[in-house]
Amino acid sequence: MTGHFPPPPARGCSDTPVLKERGQHEVFCGLTGIIWLHRKMQDAFFLVVGSRTCAHLLQSAAGVMIFAEPRFATAILEETDLAGMADAQEELDRVVTQLLERRPDIRQLFLVGSCPSEVIKLDLGRAAERMSAQFAPRVRVLNYSGSGIETTFTQGEDACLAAMVPVLPDTDSRELLLVGALPDVVEQQALDLLEAMGIGPVRVLPAQSVEDDYGIGPNTVFALTQPFLSDTHAALTRRGARHIAAPFPFGEEGTTAWLSAVAAEFDVPQDLFESVTAAPRARARKAVSQASEGLRDRSVFFFPDSQLEIPLARFLTRECGMAAVEVGVPFLHRAIMSPDLDLLAEGPTLAEGQDVDKQLARCRAARPDLTVCGLGLANPLEAEGMATKWAIELVFTPVHFYEQAGDLAGLFSRPLRRRGLLKLEAAE
């Protein structure tokens, strides 16, 4: 791999001591992942077993009108369910039967646990097994937890994909599996690049349909496109698949390194790799240069929120010229994060988990130029005169691979540009 990047740092962050915090934390609900997953899997349905609050969250987050027909819904736990006065399993059977009668297009049904269903110890795993036997082969019923009690919001996708892995068929075919939900246009860009290098067959998890023909076996190699898929990584490894370790495809450097690792696995000649990637790399480099104007020599502080923090810190420091003060992550999975940690020059504090009061104190003391955090912290910090970027926007916005590299840099430069304009107006 060649590129117009700084050389790898003499000392990366792989051996940096990690500050582990286990206090009060600020997280967004794991049910949020349904908002992008239900768009990817065209024949799937997500039935959240939860409260009216869960239903309101999904409606608000998705911007779906109440009379629309999305591929998700909430089975409301009423007072009688919570008090144990009704058989919740019987009620769930009734709701699912009505749903499948009304929606014969559903081929894959996810029973999604929530905080309320977990508090009352409702066994959705047993329910999924019972319903799978009842409705097979027309409908496959799976279960995962989207509860936000101890998890961050991107782990909903991780739990969903991990639940799918055990039921995928066995195969001995040598195949590349791309793992992680991406916007359709971004996913297609990746597939086009891989196809131009002669790499294939390439499968995608999650697939659009349960009928998509692929399995998992000892000859499967997989590349993660999202850094928060630790449970899915473990599930695939247990099935015998092998992970292609690489930096994540954010920015020109990350995308080139990710593609290079996959190309090396499939013995792609270097001249072919260069010819396929040269033009999009040049576009990405130009776009990042333009969009990152104003980021150079600025400082950034990451609160733990989305699990994207480490590869984003690598992108901002190496391609946009920023300095990372602290990089907080909800969980640090070294088998997944090591390639990015190797490229992130030592200097920033690495923090795993969160004690929100202590981290706020460190952030206020550092006074970074930009703070990346959740919505619950952004407004108070903005009121204190600090520029912020909502972490959730980095998940909902297409930011992977070459064609989105400039957009990614722009997400970070806009808050600083806006704050500069506000200061200018105030001075006038």
TrEMBL record:
Keywords: 4Fe-4S, ATP-binding, Bacteriochlorophyll biosynthesis, Chlorophyll biosynthesis, Iron, Iron-sulfur, Metal-binding, Nucleotide-binding, Oxidoreductase, Photosynthesis. Pathway: Porphyrin-containing compound metabolism; bacteriochlorophyll biosynthesis (light-independent). One of its GO terms (biological process) is photosynthesis, dark reaction. Pfam families: Oxidored_nitro. Residues 29-388 form the Nitrogenase/oxidoreductase component domain. Its EC number is 1.3.7.7. InterPro entries: LIPOR_BchN/ChlN, Nase/OxRdtase_comp1, Protochl_reductN. Its cofactor is [4Fe-4S] cluster. It comes from the Bacteria. [4Fe-4S] cluster binds at residues 29, 54, 115. It is an enzyme of class 1 (oxidoreductase). Protochlorophyllide reductase is composed of three subunits; BchL, BchN and BchB. Forms a heterotetramer of two BchB and two BchN subunits. Component of the dark-operative protochlorophyllide reductase (DPOR) that uses Mg-ATP and reduced ferredoxin to reduce ring D of protochlorophyllide (Pchlide) to form chlorophyllide a (Chlide). This reaction is light-independent. The NB-protein (BchN-BchB) is the catalytic component of the complex. Belongs to the BchN/ChlN family. NCBIfam families: DPOR_bchN, PRK02842.1. This is Light-independent protochlorophyllide reductase subunit N. It comes from Thalassococcus profundi. The gene is bchN.
